[in-house]
Amino acid sequence: AQSVSQHNHHVILSEAASLELGCNYSYGGTVNLFWYVQYPGQHLQLLLKYFSGDPLVKGIKGFEAEFIKSKFSFNLRKPSVQWSDTAEYFCAAVNTGGFKTIFGAGTRLFVKA
Amino acid sequence: KAGVTQTPRYLIKTRGQQVTLSCSPISGHRSVSWYQQTPGQGLQFLFEYFSETQRNKGNFPGRFSGRQFSNSRSEMNVSTLELGDSALYLCASSLTSTETQYFGPGTRLLVL
């Protein structure tokens, strides 16, 4: 069955710390991968996406993610977090020929000022 | 360009009632997906519509249904509400189902 797993449900970091959020997917075939973010009181919005090409993709606000096909992973990274990065982060995947996007359970990140 | 809108924003219902939620996608987007969001469960896929056709459905009981109109606006209906249906229901639109999704603010449903 198709699934997306996020390793951490809650992460607490201090400002300037580095961040890595894990995401693994279980899919057959080619997939499009996404990270979405939900800031407090705001809509879910796209952080970055991978469709093809360079497996290291850059998104908004200094975030990046690396697609490792052999590990079925798409981990999110940021070298130095800010208090404003406090939010919930969701990894998502969809088959390139599919109609159903599967989301992970989400990771709540709290950054201490 | 106007974003995805959802109405109503909040609803309180009692068990056994039914509810209809509405979603207006971004102009030009023909794919509309619905999700149920609950704490700790993330977003659970309900269904996806494209050009008035339901192309996929998640693992939800038949009490959950939806439709899409010719202008791409979509509705979802939940009949015979149960306490466990309390959740945030999100609608997302996109050009196609594999592209970036743009989310609405959601409808928060509370079933008493």
Describe it.
- The complex is a heterodimer of chains A (113) and B (112).
- With 113 residues, chain A is mainly β.
- Chain A is 0% helix and 55% strand.
- Chain A is built from no helices and twelve strands.
- Chain A has strands at residues 3-6, 10-14, 19-21, 23-26, 31-38, 44-50, 56-58, 64-68, 73-78, 87-95, 102-103, 107-112.
- The model of chain A has no long low-confidence stretch (mean pLDDT 94).
- Chain B is built from no helices and eleven strands.
- Chain B has strands spanning 5-7, 10-13, 19-24, 31-38, 42-50, 53-57, 64-68, 74-78, 87-94, 102-103, 107-111.
- Chains A and B meet through strand 5, strand 6, strand 10 and strand 11 of A and strand 4 and strand 5 of B.
How would you describe this structure in keywords?
heterodimer; A: 113 residues; mainly beta; 6-stranded mixed β-sheet; 4-stranded antiparallel β-sheet; 0% helix; B: 112 residues; 7-stranded mixed β-sheet; 54% strand; globular
How would you briefly describe this protein structure?
The complex is a heterodimer of chains A (113) and B (112). By secondary structure, chain A is mainly β.
Write the layout of secondary structure elements.
The complex is a heterodimer of chains A (113) and B (112).
Chain A: E1 3-6, E2 10-14, E3 19-21, E4 23-26, E5 31-38, E6 44-50, E7 56-58, E8 64-68, E9 73-78, E10 87-95, E11 102-103, E12 107-112
Parallel strand pairs in A: 2-12
Antiparallel strand pairs in A: 1-4, 3-9, 5-6, 5-10, 7-8, 8-9, 10-11, 10-12
Chain B: E1 5-7, E2 10-13, E3 19-24, E4 31-38, E5 42-50, E6 53-57, E7 64-68, E8 74-78, E9 87-94, E10 102-103, E11 107-111
